[in-house]
Amino acid sequence: MNVRYDTIPSLQAFLDALPEAVRSTRIDPVPPRNHNDWSALMPEAPAALFCPRTTEDIAVLLRAANTHRISVVPQGGLTGLCGGARPVSSGIALSLEKMVGIEEIDPASATITVLAGTPLEVVQNAAAEAGLYFPLDLGARGSCTIGGNASTNAGGNRVIRYGLMRDLVLGLEAVLSNGTVIDATTKLIKNNTGYDLRQLFLGSEGTLGIITRLVLRLQPAPGCTHAALCGMGDYASVLRLLDGARRKLGPTLSAFEVMWPDYWQIACDVPGVRSPLTQQHVFRVLIEAQGTNEAIDSARFTTFLEEMFDDGVLEDAVLSQSLSDIKTFWGVRDACSEFKVTLGPHLAYDVGLPTRQADEFAKACAAAITQAVPGGKSVFYGHVADGNLHLLAWLPGAKYQPAKAFDTAVYSTVREFGGSVSAEHGIGTTKKPYLEHSRTAQEIALMRLIKTALDPNGILNPGKVIDL
Q: Rounded CA gap, 305 and 283, in Å?
């Protein structure tokens, strides 16, 4: 429902308090795309939308919003799945889409300094043009923004080698709820000077401050990439393959993607997806290594696979011969992005578990889903080597999916296994009721204390992650 800003007296006073230069960054009417992110929640129109161009614009907006107690929901590329960027009708949405640009690439420090609204793919391409590499990679790379990646502590496909977003950020600039600008844009790797303030904002989903600028760590561009799709008969073999990869491939191991049989079948039914493995297997694993020397690393990768065959770990494997092959392999793994077309409405989950228990969890969770929703279906896949498992749940033929029943089944099983209700998507609105499944009462109390200290009036992204 649209809420006219002039029906909220404090909002009118807020608008009147803004200088003309900042008031001019308002977009009216609010485009429908700014009513929601990619979550399954119902859209909500904010009372007003601003697209500031500078950090100072944001500081002025937050200063006035804090004075007049106006809620502010920051928005990036709106690709989040947990409702973290969904606005509230009585407040404003603050989109960083105009704060785009690469400010500096420093080869000596191996860093890139970027504005928070810059799309991830733009950052990747800028690094590549400089002969360097920014390793974070997501399916939404062309739409998601680097500030959104930081605020949700995004993970992606290559966490096993390069870490989460919080491992890729050396410094940042952020604006607090009262308009104070925190400039912590250091390029230093070793910076042991008290509290690490950047970590307050990384993963906090805009509830403690709005990230406006980032100093990101770059890596040498990979000299070569090798991949294989492997088939095996049980999860014990998957674990043996992972152990062998860690020992034999060392730091070149960049991805280890596990696909359960039901996922594989549905993925290969997606138009345009080709199955490189023709035999039936219980598990398929996409393994990737990024090296520096084609001759040396190719031989190492091939020898590793041969040893896995000799040890009885692998039933079958297809080794990439070109970049086109690697793209085909990843096409099966990334086919989940098209499941809305092939499956229809469904719910997506992103959980963290001890790697050894992933298959045991999948079996228990599938049973819990079937019990909670008779006729309910589920498929499992994920990075696994970093403890991240994805799953989809749906009731075939149902126009409206029983989200509450599915959520309870999935997150209760996660709690039983001592896992995390969110491995890389954040908490937002949808996972907030289940935060206590993964965090102790003492941890939640400390989170609330930090929120109170940095945002005492509760104006920043209210209702997300944690309440005052």
A: 16
Residue 394 pairs in a beta bridge with: 377
Residues 291, 151: Cα–Cα separation, whole Å:
30
Whether residue 227 is predicted with pLDDT greater than 60 in this model: the reply is yes
Tell me whether strands 219-220 and 316-319 are parallel, antiparallel or unpaired.
unpaired
CA distance 419 to 365: 12
Q: E strands along 199-303, which residues?
A: 210-217, 219-220, 224-232, 253-259, 283-291
Concatenate the DSSP letters of all residues of 342-380 into one string.
HT-S-EEEEEE--GGGHHHHHHHHHHHHHHHSTT-EEEE
Report the DSSP beta bridge partners of residue 231.
284, 316
Provide the greatest CA pair distance for the chain.
74
- For residue 178 the two structure tokens come to 């009262």
Q: Give the tens place of pLDDT for each residue, 357-378.
A: 999 999 999 999 999 999 999 9
Q: Is the Cβ–Cβ distance between 47 and 67 less than 8 Å?
A: no
What domains appear along the chain, each with residue ranges and CATH number?
A: 5-95 (3.30.43.10), 102-220 (3.30.465.10), 224-336 (3.30.70.2190), 343-442 (3.30.70.2740)
- Within 260-343, strands assigned E span 283-291, 316-319
Q: How far apart are CA 430 and CA 435, in angstroms?
A: 10
Place of tokens 């674990």: 239
Give the pLDDT band (50/70/90) at residue 273: confident
Q: pTM score > 0.90 for this model? A: yes
